[in-house]
């Protein structure tokens, strides 16, 4: 397969068509071949924000044999290294090999022991009722705690700056393959107790959440920016996935540059 087969992923309603045309021309002038099926691509470029990048990875099947690239239509985010307005910057970067490949850990989730789903930001599970939601939390086979409250977020390192950060989880370097578990409004009193702080698990561990079957067992399960259609849930098995998502890194744009740019 040609290594310069390029597929653009975007929503028609969000981007001007002449802007897309300009980008297509630019790509072809620089030796890329545009393909109309993402399966033929070895580079998949999303156009939009981080949310669009997450969709691009999800809709193309979390491939580990291609390079994903984020082109931002607004401010540079966490997954977008290029800005649509900076066309010279894009060309220059590809020409002068200012690009390194980096690999981002993803997580693998099995719901009720069925087929696996992948997440690049996080898997979240929360109550769909105004009633406490109860889960037994196992680390490997060890019963660690019984959670009562709204739900839990299990984030990847790159997802640590998203939902996880809003609930005071730590920002984690993506060079550390791990899972971070953080709580959504846990009940903590003389009867019920959870750790109460986020915790981080190594890629050698697995996390099992057994939903207590007490009537509140149709939780909302989210994989990045997509919700699983409402269904009966008994168990989630979560671990760091074997596959990683490859993307580009420009010089002077490490993860920590992005954290500084976004938050400081
Ligand atoms: P959204 O609700 O439109 O976006 C939430 C915001 O998070 C957007 O500004 C988005 O950037 C940004 N974002 C996405 N991934 C990020 C990351 N890894 N680090 C830092 N910021 C990130 O939904 P969306 O754009 O489709 O993004 C989905 C993500 O939203 C979910 O995976 C979850 O992490 C997050 N979320 C957060 C909360 C919360 O903080 N309370 C609640 C639900 C979901 P762009 O504008 O560039 O897309
Ligand atoms: Mn968004």
From TrEMBL:
Annotated compartments: Cytoplasm
Keyword annotations of the record: ATP-binding, Cytoplasm, Kinase, NAD, NADP, Nucleotide-binding, Transferase
Cofactor(s) the protein needs: a divalent metal cation
GO cellular component, one term: cytoplasm
Residue positions binding NAD(+): 50-51, 121-122, 148, 150, 161-166, 185
EC number: 2.7.1.23
Main location: cytoplasm
InterPro entries: ATP-NAD_kinase_N, ATP-NAD_kinase_PpnK-typ_C, NAD/diacylglycerol_kinase_sf, NADK
Organism domain of life: Bacteria
Reactions accelerated catalytically: NAD(+) + ATP = ADP + NADP(+) + H(+)
Top EC class for this record: transferase
Active-site residues, Swiss-Prot/TrEMBL: 50 (proton acceptor)
ATP-binding found in the keyword field: yes
Keyword Transcription (UniProt): no
One term of GO molecular function: NAD+ kinase activity
GO BP of this protein: NAD+ metabolic process; NADP+ biosynthetic process
Main function: Involved in the regulation of the intracellular balance of NAD and NADP, and is a key enzyme in the biosynthesis of NADP. Catalyzes specifically the phosphorylation on 2'-hydroxyl of the adenosine moiety of NAD to yield NADP.
Family of the protein in this entry: Belongs to the NAD kinase family.
PANTHER family attached to this UniProt entry: NAD KINASE, NAD KINASE 2
Protein name stated in the entry: NAD kinase
């Amino acid at each position: 397969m040609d290594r310069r087969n390029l597929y653009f992923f975007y929503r028609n309603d969000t981007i001007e068509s002449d802007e897309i045309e300009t980008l297509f021309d630019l790509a072809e002038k620089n030796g890329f071949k545009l393909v109309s099926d993402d399966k033929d691509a070895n580079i998949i470029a999303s156009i939009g924000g981080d949310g669009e990048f997450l969709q691009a990875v999800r809709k193309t099947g979390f491939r580990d044999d291609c390079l994903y690239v984020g082109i931002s239509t607004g401010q540079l985010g966490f997954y977008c290294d290029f800005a649509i307005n900076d066309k010279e910057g894009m060309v220059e970067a590809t020409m002068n090999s200012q690009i390194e490949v980096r690999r981002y850990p993803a997580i693998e989730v099995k719901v009720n022991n069925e087929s696996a789903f992948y997440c690049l930001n996080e898997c979240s599970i929360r109550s769909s009722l105004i009633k406490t939601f109860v889960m037994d939390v196992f680390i490997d086979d060890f019963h660690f705690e019984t959670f009562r409250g709204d739900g839990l977020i299990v984030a990847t390192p790159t997802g640590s700056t998203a939902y996880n950060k809003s609930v005071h989880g730590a920002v984690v370097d993506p060079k550390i393959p791990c899972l971070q578990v953080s709580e959504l409004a846990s009940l903590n009193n003389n009867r019920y107790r959870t750790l109460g702080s986020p915790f981080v698990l190594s890629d050698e561990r697995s996390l099992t959440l057994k939903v207590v079957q007490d009537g509140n067992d149709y939780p909302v399960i989210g994989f990045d920016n997509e919700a699983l259609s409402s269904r009966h849930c008994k168990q989630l098995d979560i671990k760091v996935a074997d596959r990683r998502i490859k993307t580009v890194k420009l010089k002077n744009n490490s993860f920590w540059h992005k954290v500084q740019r976004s938050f400081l």
